[in-house]
Each structure stands twice: as structure tokens, then as C-alpha cells.
Design a protein that fits this description.
The complex is a heterodimer of chains A (239) and B (111). Chain A is of the alpha+beta class and 239 residues long. Chain A has helices at 32-43, 77-80, 105-113, 136-140, 152-156, 158-162, 169-179, 187-194, 208-212, 219-235, and strands at residues 2-13, 17-27, 62-65, 68-71, 86-89, 96-98, 101-102. Chain A has 10 helices and 7 strands. The longest helix of chain B is centred in the first third of the chain and has 32 residues, at 3-34. Classes of the chains: A alpha+beta (239), B mainly alpha (111). Chains A and B meet through helix 10 of A and helix 1 and helix 3 of B.
């Protein structure tokens, strides 16, 4: 049931471009992704945007909504707009391919740079590794292992804006999950990969990532853990 | 600058920050206590002259400033896009200058 009209501004273009105005029928329980989809299907088929699951599982529909990075599929219009205008832009800190679509290459390259992949030394002939669920390292990453790589934290991080080579909260949080993985055998290499001016030590603990993460992960806490682990390894002469 | 040095600089800045937090509190409490009957050079010097304890305290304070400030300035410059070796050299000179000025002042009030 339509409930009036919503004024929407949507970014059109690449790095240069401008906001274009649209009028979209207001619906009950309408999400921001519903609005973008309405514009693309009914008003302007040339609008580029990215989505897949529509229910907060895939992490591909993240955009900047009224200045704040969010999952558009899990953001009700009523939560962000009130009686005002809805402004939808692409994620920050990433190159814009077109309209609301960003190039995530650098974001995921940084996961690789932070050695965000598991390195084991067991074979299929070995028994299953046993990780005690109540152990400290396992509990330390309870939240962080739920990351789905949506880029909201990366887009919200001011340090990434100032230092484009900074690995960023998502890649470092991923590294933190592996630092606490007792099965992983590449710990020294990983600590070396996340150390220094472009790594965990660049974090100012502003906690924008923690504030904005839709999964309520605290990358800041993980980064603080990495800082301590790297310093300890350095003082022991392991780095 | 290699990664190991970057990490050690970060550690040095953290430790110097802890020292500064303590020193600033002691310094402020002393200031409030010292001005209760008005402030005079004679009163300050009466407290500091020949005092090994005040000498050590202010020398530590100066050392913490000389370590902390240039590392922080280096980070600020890096975020402004200045990440050349020249900045590192400048910050080293800044550290030496702060240490020299500070220790000269400590020398003046203690000896």
C-alpha cells in the first residue's frame, strides 16, 4: 500500500558525477534496497547497483545511505529518512565503477596482503583437529569469524581515507581470526604481514568500523590484539 | 624504514604515553600546590635546587616528550601524504632538539 512519495537522491556517474533526484512511492516496511530496485526497474534501467540475497547474508548491497555505510537490504527507509530525503551513494574509500557499484579489488587484495588465508600442515590422513570451544583463542574470535566481507567497515574507516595503503579493518580482523587459529602454521609470516605503518599500527582506535559493522563485530578489538601480538613477537626477536 | 623499527616506534610511543600521563598528573598537582601562596622564582628554585628526585622526575618527563611528540608528528605527516625519509630525519632532529631544550631547563632549575 503506497503511503505517499519519497524524495530520493542517487549518485550517478563514476568518481565524478552528481546526485539525481527521483520520486519513489513510499511503502510500509520498505528497505533502501527496495527503493534502489524500484528506481532501476521502473524509472531508469541504466542505474547500476549490486545485490544478491536481499536478506543480509551475502554482503553485496552495501552503500552509503544518508552519509552512513550500511547494508541497504537490512535498512528500513523509516529508520533513516524520517520526513526528509533519502540520499544513496556508493561505498567510500573504493573506486566507483558506475553509479552505486564500487570496485572491490583492492579491498580483497588487502585480505590477501594481510595473509588472510588459512595455512595448515595436516593431511586427509590425519585425525580432525580438536579446538576447545571454550578456549580463550577460540572465544576471542567468536564475532570476527562471522564477517561476510561487505566492506561497510572499510568504507567507514577514516584511516583508510588518509592512508590508502592501510590494510583496513576487514583484512586485519580476518588476520586476527587466523592468529587465534591453533591449527594455522604461518603465524610469524602473518604477524609480519599485518605489522607496521600500513598495518595494524596505523589504527587510531576511532572505532568507526565497530560502530558501523552490521554483524556487530569489533575489528578495533581484533586490531588491538594484533598490535599486542606483533609487539610481543618483535620484542622476542621473531619479526 | 623497516617494519621492525615501525613496530618498535609504536611501542615506544605507547610506553612514553603512559609515562606522560603520570608525569602530567604529578606536574599539574605540583602546579596547583605551588601557586597556593602566589608564585615566585625563588619558591620554585627553593623546591628544585639540589633535589635529585625533582631532577630525575623532570628528566624522565623530558625524555617521554622527546620520544612521544616526534613519533606522533611522523604519523600526522604520513597521513598528510608526507612519507619521505626526509621526514624521519626531521623528526629525529626534533627529538634531539626537544631533549636538548628540556634537559637544559631541568639543568637550570635543579643545579
Amino acid at each position: 500500500m503506497a503511503m505517499g512519495t519519497l524524495n530520493v537522491k542517487i549518485w550517478r556517474g563514476t568518481e565524478s558525477g552528481n546526485f539525481q533526484d527521483y520520486k519513489v512511492p513510499r511503502q510500509e516496511s520498505q528497505t533502501v534496497l527496495d527503493v534502489v530496485t524500484y528506481v532501476q526497474r521502473r524509472l531508469d534501467p541504466s542505474l547500476a547497483y549490486r545485490f544478491a540475497c536481499r536478506v543480509g547474508v551475502c554482503g553485496s548491497c552495501a552503500m552509503t545511505v544518508n552519509g552512513i555505510s550500511r547494508w541497504t537490504c537490512r535498512t528500513h527507509v523509516s529508520k533513516v529518512v524520517g520526513e526528509g530525503t533519502l540520499e544513496i551513494a556508493p561505498l567510500r574509500n573504493l573506486p566507483v565503477v558506475r553509479d552505486l557499484v564500487t570496485d572491490m579489488t583492492e579491498f580483497f587484495d588487502k585480505w590477501a596482503k594481510a595473509r588472510g588465508h588459512f595455512t595448515g600442515n595436516k593431511t586427509r590422513k590425519d585425525d580432525f583437529a580438536r579446538v576447545e570451544p571454550a578456549s580463550m583463542p577460540r572465544r576471542a574470535v567468536d564475532a570476527a569469524i562471522e564477517c561476510i566481507g561487505c566492506g561497510v567497515c572499510y568504507s567507514s574507516c577514516e584511516v583508510v581515507t588518509w592512508k590508502p595503503d592501510y590494510l583496513g579493518p576487514a583484512a586485519l580482523s580476518r588476520a586476527w581470526t587466523l592468529v587465534n587459529d591453533v591449527r594455522d602454521v604461518a603465524q610469524k609470516e602473518r604477524l609480519a604481514a599485518v605489522a607496521g605503518d600500513a598495518g595494524c599500527h596505523a589504527c587510531h582506535t576511532h572505532m568507526n568500523c565497530t560502530e558501523r559493522c552490521p554483524k556487530h563485530i569489533s575489528p578495533t578489538a581484533g586490531i588491538a590484539g594484533l598490535k599486542r601480538a606483533v609487539l610481543a613477537a618483535t620484542l622476542k626477536g621473531e619479526l | 624504514m623497516n617494519t621492525r623499527t615501525q613496530v618498535l616506534l609504536w611501542g615506544a610511543q605507547r610506553i612514553s604515553a603512559m609515562v606522560l600521563a603520570l608525569c602530567v598528573i604529578v606536574h599539574l598537582v605540583t602546579v596547583i600546590y605551588a601557586v597556593r601562596n602566589g608564585l615566585s622564582a625563588a619558591e620554585i628554585l627553593g623546591r628544585t635546587r639540589g633535589s635529585v628526585a625533582w631532577g630525575c622526575f623532570y628528566a624522565l618527563f623530558v625524555a617521554a616528550v622527546a620520544v612521544h611528540a616526534p613519533i606522533g608528528m611522523r604519523n600526522i605527516f604520513a597521513e598528510m601524504g608526507w612519507r619521505r625519509r626526509g621526514v624521519d630525519v626531521m623528526m629525529f632532529v626534533l627529538a634531539l632538539t626537544l631533549a636538548m631544550w628540556g634537559l637544559r631547563a631541568v639543568w637550570a632549575v635543579v643545579l
